[in-house]
Write a structure and sequence with these properties.
Radius of gyration of chain A: 20 Å
Helix content of chain A: 25-40%
Oligomer: homodimer
Distance between the termini of chain A: 33 Å
Strand order of the largest sheet of chain A: 5-6-7-10-9-8
Number of strands of chain A: 11
CATH class of the largest domain in chain A: Alpha Beta
Strand content of chain A: 25-35%
Largest sheet of chain A: 6 strands, antiparallel
Number of helices of chain A: 7
Largest interface: A-B, 37 and 37 residues
CATH topology of the largest domain in chain A: Chorismate lyase
Shape of chain A: globular
CATH superfamily of the largest domain in chain A: Chorismate lyase-like
Order of helices and strands of chain A: HEHHEEEEHEEHHEHEEE
Chain lengths: 251, 251
DNA sequence: AAGTGGTCTAGACCACTAC
DNA sequence: TAGTGGTCTAGACCACTTA
């Protein structure tokens, strides 16, 4: 954990980008963990050998990416998942009237398996690599409306068991963070129409083959390394998916 | 079009927020139009009576919201729609293999009508207010896969006719900008499963009542004033909707 | 009162674009 | 060469939090 000043100005690009990379590297290395306070701006500026303004610009970008959170008078913190309404950054299902409710999650299945071609491609592992697969049912306002099929690479989640998953106190991404040091900071989602399988028919109380909203999500940690593939199917009779709220950044 | 310095520091909040508001007001008033270059940072800083750094912070936010675009060595410009790949900020349909193609648009219907309750609520007008309603068919790779039902308030689009709409040289939002001074800078979208009407059945070549991805969009101009309601239905056999690419801002 | 982030200044120098 | 935005500095003062 070197605390040396970073490289001279000209090499990697600009000073503040280098500072940003250095902070990201420290986060990846676990120097500061989820929810913790990082050193003050003054201290970090000294550590990296830049002015406060430059240091702030690096942190500005990390805050814009929801990787850090600033609190005036308190300090700058490593972003945690699902705190308060922050939860709805990744949970994008609302009732048609706009009401946002926290889902009640039930683990429906858990198994060790081999990565499908789709899962392997999404997660950046070999086809047939060891993965954990599990299925959640999510209830809103007392009714199950969403089924999630989740795959994660075994290599990133050593010691994961059905019991641990079932007994987690918080949300799944918080569990990833606390239990395995994996911080989900970004997701990509593709949406299409899918059909209800037997499982979904039974759990959602709809006909076999009934149309459902199908959401394929890949979740990423720092430096865009994939950590989870999730295929969700939503009954949109009473609920909707919140799509693009354009105005913020896209690439 | 006053060029006075803005208010003293304490009133509206912070200096740079006031500068930002003042720039937004000038944009709304049409002082600088789509694609035009706004005055240099130095000149604007003098005009508003703030330092360069403060002026830059205001412009930083407007660039982050895709309202302005900076070009080093050239100047700062009012954002235009659908230039190059910028088009795909609002067009969120891709082939399943990820291929992005520009749609070929066909106007299928055009009429004057009264706002439905949904349209009135979305657009912030009275139920029964005069609106234009029109329908587009969008073809990708030679096949029509998306039908758009669009409502816009007559009051904001004086003199709009079917002929003008049909003969527009560019995309719809560019037409709004050039023809009516309306800049779409933000959209909200809700996604669910819908069923094919007769029109969609005929144009998309699918069965009546077949499931389609239904996207309800409200488009906003500066200061979040609603200017368009659009209900789109997509055949997801070969195409998908790009949902949240979380990592950038959400509220 | 001490420490934090939030805002703001008044410049400097650099990289890029146009002429 | 002149003008633009991009980066960076070395502070100042303010607002907020905790004690």
């Amino acid at each position: 954990m070197s605390t040396l000043a970073i490289n001279p100005p000209a090499l990697g690009g600009t000073r503040y980008k280098e500072v940003k990379s250095a902070i990201l590297a420290a986060l990846s290395a676990g120097e500061w963990k989820g929810g913790e306070c990082i050193p003050s701006e003054k201290r970090l500026a000294e550590r990296f050998g830049v002015s406060i303004g430059t240091l702030r610009k690096a942190i500005d970008e990390l805050c814009a990416e929801n990787i850090l959170i600033r609190h005036q008078g308190l300090g700058t913190f490593v972003s945690m998942h699902q705190r308060d309404r922050h939860f709805f950054r990744f949970f994008r299902v609302v009732r048609r009237d706009g009401d946002k409710a926290y889902p009640v999650v039930t683990l429906l299945d858990f198994r060790k398996a081999r990565a499908s071609r789709e899962a392997a491609a999404a997660l950046g592992v070999e086809t047939g690599a060891r993965v954990f697969q599990f299925v959640n049912g999510l209830a809103l306002h007392g009714k199950t409306v969403l089924i999630e099929h989740i795959s994660v690479p075994e290599a990133h989640f050593p010691g994961l068991t059905e019991a641990k998953l079932r007994n987690r106190p918080n949300t799944l991404y918080n569990f990833y963070q606390d239990g395995f040091g994996i911080n989900v900071v970004e997701t990509d989602e593709r949406v299409s129409v899918g059909l209800a399988s037997e499982l979904e028919s039974a759990k959602l109380g709809i006909a076999l083959g009934a149309p459902l909203l199908e959401i394929r999500r890949v979740a990423y940690s720092y430096h865009r390394s994939a950590v989870e593939l999730r295929v969700s199917r939503l009954n949109t009779e009473e609920y909707e998916y919140i799509g693009a709220t354009s105005g913020a950044d896209e690439k």
